């Protein structure tokens, strides 16, 4: 007897990836034993050490368990199991955790499926291998300055595009889509890569080193160790990265901490309308904490790879506020802002530029990069997301999820 | 793990950390303190850093920051703190728009401030947006038409930010004639200048040059002429007598430049690199070769 395990999505290499958010997996008995209507099995996970861990349930819930006993019909009918990563037990590589189905009793292995609990992590916590894979994917995406990475520089520039990204409450949803687009491009190069984040309210010894994001010299020219993948980085002007020396391995930037961002003065932000003022501090302050260089101006910031780690943390803070307040539903007025008083591009049902294509003035009349990159793991948010699509990224209230999650923000429904 | 218990614990931690925290400084208090005879610049910096930029306070805060930045009687450390906060405020272009013209005019004036740190900081900010006035000041300094406002290496770096700027002739001259950091920055500035390809080739191949300079020249050649770079990079990568750092950079550049990799990713070159990877003691060269093999040799 065998049990076929069918995850909802696979990539071209027949690999499947999960986050904290459970997905519906179908089990089906093949070559059943004769004369029985059902077979009893136990679903569990086998993990390498260190490796990801899985949780199982019969419904979509954050209350999954490490093992699950089931009766599977021998008729060939499918049975659903919800499978998600165990919170705080992410993978570091594909196949470091395998879903297994075993007979019960008997403990005979009748089905298995390797996977990866693919999660965005604190840059400080990356292993050397994870770090180097991320850097290599970034270098490959950039090529010699004319690779697909160029589109990401061109999306985040001055003029009309700046108003799309920074000119109103769409600031956080816009950047969530932007990061997701970039991460998916990186995953086309190396499917095991996720965007790490720079926890900018703490010292970041590993990140600010010549092995990782580089250290600037007195001229603000970033220095790397020999053979570093970003050594030949070309943005617009010249080889190398320009960044001031405001942040080093022991620097704790003077900006609002995570607690001050979510709960200033001891009171949790009650709605998105007040939470979004984090655009100035810690967001703007984090940019300016570098002192000088490309990252200190909206039009030039994406030339520096550190920019994406900074914004990944901004997005994580929004995700953390959403979890802390349990405000995920796009139709909840507290989840975004009222429609009145905001320019196009900043209202709940507005399509986000540039993924929606060129628009009429005063919105941008060109649109670099085409639609938002697809993911083999999910169909959402689609090639042309709206603001409302970027709110419930984890599929807490909606039936779909965007196949990314943060190491310290759980799924909870 | 009980996720709801974790959420409650997290909320309690937030409360404990933020309860009783002092409120942000108000623009009135900062303005008043900045005008005080007993002003301490360190304390003024702290007040500026905690100045609220939320919607209700934005306009008044930006007004105060502009006034502090413009005030030459205040120490440069506090004026630079004001400039940094203005940089944060700039990240909301729509709210900042009413102040933009005044801000740029102020920065242009401060580009010639008596304080060298203020000059350098405002020229940094102006050149990020290719400000023509700032570019003119920097160019005139490099041409000795006026007294230089910042060191020459910094001036070259800032002037080179504009891809469509008019500094190329100066950069070519400095790349050939200057020394040290000025030459390094001039080389970086020429990044993809096709007319400098021969110079890049010559510097990158010259073992008497310092490795960092050869590295920049080699990477520039990749941008200026992929064909010439492929030839040079092959030679550098396979030369056991050359500097391992430079060889690692060459292999890395081949790996991440599709056009060059397509020319070089033959089994013969791959075998030669593998053999080097097996024998070298340089971790950088070893890992560069490993990445090349993974990306292009299957």
Detailed description of the structure:
The complex is a heterodimer of chains A (413) and B (298). Chain A is an alpha+beta fold and 413 residues long. Chain A contains eight helices and eleven strands. Chain A has a five-stranded mixed sheet, with no helix packed on it. A four-stranded antiparallel sheet of chain A has the order 1-3-7-5, with no helix packed on it. Chain A is globular, with a radius of gyration of 23 Å. Chain A starts with a strand and ends in an 88-residue tail after the last helix. Chain B has 298 residues and is an all-alpha fold. The model of chain B has no long low-confidence stretch (mean pLDDT 94).
Mean pLDDT figure of chain B: 94
Over all CA atoms, what is the radius of gyration of chain B?
A: 26 Å
**CATH superfamily membership of the largest domain in chain A:** Di-copper center containing domain from catechol oxidase
The percentage helix of chain B is over 70%
**Do you know the CATH topology of the largest domain in chain A?**
di-copper center containing domain from catechol oxidase
Helix count from the secondary structure assignment of chain B: 18
For the largest beta-sheet of chain B, the strand count, sense and barrel status come to: none
